[in-house]
MarR family transcriptional regulator (Micromonospora solifontis), 310 residues
Amino acid sequence: MSDDATAEEITLGRIETEVALLMRLGEATRRATGTAEHRVLDRAAYVILRHLDKAGPQNVSALAARLNLDGSTVTRQVSAMHRDGLIARTPDPADGRGTVISPTPAGLQRMAAVQAARTRLYGDILANWSPDDRGTLADLLHRLNEALDARNRPR
Amino acid sequence: MSDDATAEEITLGRIETEVALLMRLGEATRRATGTAEHRVLDRAAYVILRHLDKAGPQNVSALAARLNLDGSTVTRQVSAMHRDGLIARTPDPADGRGTVISPTPAGLQRMAAVQAARTRLYGDILANWSPDDRGTLADLLHRLNEALDARNRPR
DNA sequence: CGCTCATAGCTGTATGATACAACTGAATTA
DNA sequence: TAATTCAGTTGTATCATACAGCTATGAGCG
């Protein structure tokens, strides 16, 4: 690394650092906070329920594509969730190969509980942030995710 | 979820959502981008090298504590890195039980390469962001990490 | 000194999330 | 209709991680 880094490169390096750190801390937080809510609904199940809730019932492939996961991963995740009564599977009327996955009321309830717990956690963590900073963080994270997603998807 | 959520609660929910999403996308990006740089240095090794580089040589326990990882995890990670010549282990002169881990030149070089690749990636992803927004993102992520860390550490 | 207890690190073993490859059966197309 | 593509599943492998149990060293106390 020569030291002719521009201010912009430094900023990018900082973002890189902080995202890497956030991944690690997020993992750790998820584990540490797993006293109650998290153990009953693992990361992937939560994200799947969130997506079903927002985007509506859909089949395994659609889910996999949307979540950047392999179909087999989603299959297993979904079958575990089915075993636990969190989702329902109905044959896709339009395609005999497909199965449509939809959240059950129990699933939605579980999702909401985890969401509430996490929201509470963030309220705690960001207790002394100004509403303004919180809003800006939410906005920028959203834009970052959009950008990452755009980069990932058009493979 | 009753709908008496305050604006603040909504913001927290958004942050929660975006962080969860970022974790997923970050994973996916790491995997997808793994064409060259990432396959030679996995996530944990990278973070360990970064930390050694910044905070200086230290023993396994210190690393584990700092990274919120179990000692056994770090042991294995470190021994893989040792096998690959990325770090050196010297007996701790002050404590016969301990081993001090330090990055080798090869390790630092590898780390720098990954870092550069990631920085480039972010430059690409955030190509059309204003310098201002990038700076703000870096700042807020930093503060978020500090807050998460503070929450995690004082166990 | 010689116990006893705490600590550093390692190894065994288990779990969870993930991918890739191979397969089955249904849909689409030539 | 035969060939091809696609949806979903199952087999198998990998990786990161944790927890429990072990060994050896260090520290404090009688």
Summary: The domain at 41-152 of chain A is CATH 1.10.10.10 (Arc Repressor Mutant, subunit A). Residues 27, 31, 59-61, 71-72, 74-76, 79, 92, 95-99 of chain A lie near DNA strand D (CB under 10 Å from a C1'). Residues 70 and 149 of chain A are 16 Å apart (CA to CA). Chain A has two domains: 1-32, 41-152.
